[in-house]
Amino acid sequence: MKQSRISGMRKIGLVILLLSPVALGCSRAEQPGFRLNEVEIAARELGPKQQQVIADVLYALFGTPDKPFVMKETGLNVDKVQLASGAVWSDAGGRQRGLYRQHCGHCHGTTGDGMGPTAAILNPYPRDYRRGLFKFKSTERAAEPTDLDLERIIRQGAAGTAMPSFDLLAGDEVAALVEYVKYLSMRGQTEVELINRISDLGEDEQLALDYDNIVGEVLVNRVVKKWQAAGENVIQPPERSEQSAEELETSIAAGRELFYGAKANCVKCHGPSELGDGQTSDFDDWTKPLVDLAKQVNDARKSIPADPDLSSADRAKQLASVNAKAAALAHDSLPPREIIPRNLRLGIYRGGRRPLDLYRRLYSGINGAPMPGVGPASKGAVGPITPEEIWNLVDYVRSLPYESISKPQKQQKFTGREQL
Ligand code: HEC
Ligand code: HEC
User: Fold this and answer.
1) In 10 A of CB 336, how many CB atoms?
2) Ligand showing the shortest atom-to-Cα distance for residue 112
3) Among protein residues, the one whose CA lies closest to atom 19 of ligand 2
């Protein structure tokens, strides 16, 4: 038994020991490296030693942007990841390399944290892949996207946002980018899992750095399995037969009723005129923790100096931790923005405009955003809405841009005489 533990430990331990001097030495300053999730680390109050463990484990499991390491347990395709990773260059066969840095990094960031140099001026901000949360996909709300979903968003972009269409890239290039988004996502999810586990440890406990714990439990059980289950979670609406014009009218009317009624209650957020002006003060799941942490910092800065029960040493310690949180927020996040429900009169759908796309959007809601799903299996379902009723809502939503009040009004000619 001892033997098997040692061999397990050796697998991961050796990788860490052999590789970490490179990761932490001079090369990191020269090459673009992955950034640690500073906000999560500060929120969980992890010290430098614990951060080092996280950096080492991530390095052992995933390598660096220039030399990615792909464990076979991730199920990721090494060749695809390598085609997308690293610096931009063409190989001897004229094959373009470094696709992610060339096409995506300036928005989504080298680490996939959604904080590339261009990000701050965009609204919405580019996706932070590190939570494994994706919005526009064919799967149940909490499930990961399928490869096809990622391919779709890369090929088509997200209409009405800065996310461009990359439909002109070759098929194998898009496939490489899909794989790289998954690689960055898995890396970010593993990081958060490590941060949580380390912060849950007692004072004398240490994270077990053996193969079974790090690869088997953290990487495979907590992260990879979710990705591998994506295909089983695709939402398949029942087929609809061809609609006559009258049937469509009836369906739209039923959809309108649902939209304003208590069962679907779309009006609560999208507003009585469907302009998206119902509920405009909420945040998405990427932003909520930032807003909460900022509030915690502000409250603590007021309460700590005034707390008579604190010794001066404890006060200094607590203030230092609060300052670390404030510094992480300033350095590692973009200013929070409210999430605004969509203006449904424009007919611009980020997740695709086919009826099937809209059906899935309504069924599962928008993962990571306040928009709830109305499908029966969805968490936060507001009522037993049937597939037929979801189609009614789809028809109603699709009819909105064509209502006369959605169109620009003719300018009134005013000569002044009409008043006389
Ligand atoms: C000009 C900035 C920009 C570039 C370049 C860009 N993106 Fe995006 N991307 C965005 C924005 C903004 C969003 C968020 C859209 C939203 O939340 O509605 C996004 C969202 C995404 C999503 C998330 C979709 C979902 O379902 O949640 C993926 C995946 C993605 N981009 C992949 C890529 C890839 C791969 C590339 C490079 C081939 C790329 N992006 C290039 C701005 C960009
Ligand atoms: C709790 C608030 C809330 C409720 C209730 C709600 N939505 Fe939304 N909805 C949103 C938000 C916020 C967005 C934008 C999310 C984003 O861009 O990430 C959105 C986006 C959408 C979109 C755009 C999808 C796309 O691909 O761009 C549609 C269509 C939509 N909602 C329809 C509906 C319908 C129909 C209902 C009722 C069944 C509904 N919503 C209920 C908040 C809500």
Assistant:
1) 17
2) 1
3) 341
